[in-house]
Fold this sequence. Notes:
Elements: E1 3-7, H1 11-22, E2 26-31, E3 42-44, E4 51-53, E5 60-62, H2 65-74, E6 77-79, E7 84-88, E8 91-95, H3 99-106, H4 112-122, H5 133-140, H6 142-158, E9 188-192, H7 196-204, E10 209-213, E11 226-229, H8 233-236, E12 246-257, E13 268-270, E14 280-283, E15 296-306, E16 315-316, H9 320-335, E17 339-341, H10 343-347, H11 353-371
Parallel strand pairs: 1-2, 1-11, 2-10, 7-13, 11-17
Antiparallel strand pairs: 3-4, 5-9, 6-9, 7-8, 12-15, 12-16, 13-14, 14-15
Helix pairs in contact: 1-7, 1-11, 5-6
Amino acid sequence: MGRICIVGAGFSGAVIARELAEAGFSCLVVDERSHIAGNCHTERDPQTGVMVHRYGPHIFHTADEEVWRYVNRFGRMEPFVNRVKATARGAVYSLPINLHTINQFFGKTFSPAQARAFVESRARLDIQEPRTFEEQALRFVGEELYRTFFYGYTKKQWGVEPAELPASILKRLPLRFNYDDNYFNHPFQGMPRDGYTAIVQRILDVPGVELRLGCAFEELDEPFDHVFYSGPIDRYFQYREGRLGYRTLDFEAERASGPEVDFQGCAVMNYPDPDVPFTRISEHKHFAPWERIPDQTIVFREYSRACGPDDIPYYPIRLVNEKAMLLKYEQMAAAEKGVTFVGRLGTYQYLDMDVTIRRALDAARAFLTARRPRG
């Protein structure tokens, strides 16, 4: 068996390395950062002792039972329900938009059926097939709810007018006519008791896996039988068709201490007003309520901006010009021998953690199936 190179020590790379190593392959996992787990990296804040999500909040949620069992093999998942709030126009509301949000916003006491009829009366029913984010919002929630909760947040997050974004972005956000304020609909939801980095560490802890941190793929000069690449697809091809567009995030930390200190009373508070420069504030001790740290807290204000050459890419933009460029890169990737492109960056797709793990398992299994002797 030849040696396998796996680029990236996030969930994609770790899962693939584990599957191949257990099948007898020798794997080298490289990552140019100084730590594993990619953008899911968690670590203790040395000043407060709070476990922080260094690159923004990550809540694990899935309907894939095999993936749920998989992460529980490597770490204890504690029950956690993401209940997001939003400070908008001088008031605090519950997200996603639900019956409580609707009644509070419009000053009503609607039943579910009344709320549904009321929102439909505000909706732009003349928009039969929404093509843009804005049309999707206007079609399903109407002008008032769209302008209050979606327009400003979306413009800050993506750096463009919502009318320039595809409708598919908004289709991930539910609208409910009951009082359910669980941000996700999936049956399996939780947070790792010891953080995500500990889970990735345990996945990688298997004979046959060598880990090199602070090492870029371009620095390697040794031969490999196959490469699994979870870095940016355009970077692999040296940007010969141009750079794909990403958004990146900047975080502004604030710490406080004192008896029963609590900055905002919830894990995530969105700020959709256009005149507020940040998109949300995350208070990280609320992501691990079982730890009970009453006298310390740390929050991150989150600012979104265009991703430069030296920034960490977070969200693929996928506007029209990116799609045309991406098609060229996808064609080049399909023609590349001995390389499998995986993960959010390798496929230029927004992927939740559970989908990342599922695709990594599928990619590893497809590789192993192809390598089995026939007959």
